[in-house]
Write a structure and sequence with these properties.
Elements (H helix, E strand, L loop, with lengths): L2 E9 L9 E6 L2 E6 L8 E4 L4 E4 L1 E6 L19 H11 L8 H13 L2 E9 L7 H12 L5 E7 L10 H10 L4 E5 L8 H15 L2 E5 L4 H17 L6 E4 L2 H5 L2 H14 L1 E5 L10 H7 L3 E3 L16 H11 L5 H19 L14 E4 L4 H7 L5 E4 L2 E5 L2 E2 L4
Helix pairs in contact: 2-3, 4-5, 5-6, 6-8, 8-9, 10-11, 11-12
The structure holds zinc ion (ZN).
Length: 400
């Protein structure tokens, strides 16, 4: 039995002001949280009043695309979706992508910044096949005691318009990839019903979750929310379907946003927002008010799509809060909740958070309140994965 006592931290649960408490960890799980806990056999770490957040959850990134830790590559992606897709595909071989070192080094940076769970989309198409899946799996394996990584088989180049891609997605699911992706069923693939029927059909056959990139804006995007909700209901997939980006949500009038959020909540469909560039952000308060699940992610990080990004989920939470004009502490905490508990819901984690019985996945930061930490982005003092310290003061610790 291994025991750890985190003395005098301020554990955070959504909606509750953090108070001084000890956290007793036994065999990687939280055994108790309370004042003045006695654990004579435990290794003791004094937290000096620091905030203890649950491990941050990045539910949307592209580890297979990253150039992290490699040479600087000036961006040649241009400004259109089709242009970026073409640029990404045509230059990946020349740049050695996908790359296990780049993906692994990016994971290291994410962990050091407090992330304990990741969902990564991985490109699948007839040219690259399942190479990206193998590379990201190998990178995740390097950090398997530090972070849990879930993969999405993602048809970045289109599904119906790229013959052969559907078969490869199916092969990925048969090989154990947990989630099937989709991409603008109407706006890019030109057949919303056909695209969604294929994706939902494969998900049903292989017991996979679904995560669809939906950049389509305005009424075209909102119409597809309805198609996705309808299919989620018909197949009983509540809690297993996510719409990523969902730019159209941020473009609706407030009444329509509320109606959509209520429909999402009732059907068990989540949204993920990344607050990328000038793209509309899914309204955090509206989603919370309706009881709909919202999660966050970094999206592309230093890749052929964007030269920006550092993998720091707390910074992403801060960006979302800023872009959505969340200003009261209670509002900013909603963004923090999305980047933690919201992400856990999208990943389907049944044990998560600062509660007895849950794995001790923790991110310790200094700050007067959780909202202040989201604004100030203090260094991550300590990061724990299943009760083991994996990073300190923003740096990854070597495995023991
Ligand atoms: Zn993406």
């Amino acid at each position: 039995m291994t025991e750890l006592l985190l003395r005098g931290g301020r554990p955070w649960n959504p909606g509750v002001a953090p108070e001084l408490a000890d956290i007793h960890v036994v065999d990687g799980r939280i055994a108790a949280i309370g004042a003045d806990l006695a654990a004579p056999a435990a290794e003791v770490i004094d937290l000096d009043g620091a905030l203890v957040l649950p491990g941050l959850v990045d539910t949307h990134c592209h580890l297979d695309k990253t150039l992290w830790s490699g040479p600087w590559v000036p961006n040649t992606g241009g400004r259109t979706l089709a242009g970026r897709i073409a640029n990404g595909e045509s230059r990946r071989a020349e740049l050695g992508l996908p790359n296990v070192d780049y993906a692994g080094n990016l994971l290291a940076a994410m962990i050091a910044a407090g992330t304990t769970h990741v969902r990564s989309h991985v490109d699948v198409d007839p040219e690259i096949g399942l190479a990206g899946v193998e590379v990201v799996r190998a990178a995740a394996e390097r950090h398997r005691d530090r972070v849990d990584v879930e993969l999405v088989a993602f048809p970045q180049g289109g599904l119906l318009r790229r013959p052969g891609t559907a078969k490869l997605l199916e092969a990925a699911l048969a090989d154990g990839v947990e989630v099937i992706g989709g991409l603008d069923p109407a706006g890019y693939d030109d057949d919303a019903a056909g695209h969604l029927d294929l994706v939902f059909g494969l998900a049903e056959r292989y017991g996979a979750k679904i995560d669809i990139h939906l950049h389509d804006g305005g009424s075209l995007g909102a119409w597809q929310f309805g198609l996705i909700v309808e299919r989620t209901r018909a197949l009983g997939l509540a809690g297993r379907v996510t719409i990523s980006h969902a730019y159209a949500m941020g473009q609706q009038e407030p009444d329509e946003q509320r109606r959509i959020a209520e429909e999402l909540a009732a059907a068990g469909v989540a949204m993920v927002t990344c607050a990328v560039g000038e793209a509309p952000v899914v309204p955090v308060r509206v989603m919370a008010g309706a009881g709909a699940t919202l999660a966050l992610g970094n999206d592309g990080i230093r890749d052929l799509w964007t030269p920006y990004g550092d993998g720091d989920m707390l910074r992403r939470i801060s960006t979302v809060a800023y872009r959505d004009r969340l200003v009261a502490d209670t509002e900013i905490e909603l963004a923090l909740r999305a980047g933690t508990h919201g992400g856990a819901a999208v990943l389907g984690l049944t044990e998560y958070g600062l509660t007895p019985g849950a794995p001790a996945d923790l991110c310790v930061v200094d700050g007067p309140t959780p909202a202040a930490a989201v604004v100030a982005l203090p260094p991550r003092r300590l990061v724990f994965k299943r009760g083991r310290m994996v990073a300190a003061n923003g740096a990854l610790l070597a495995a023991d």
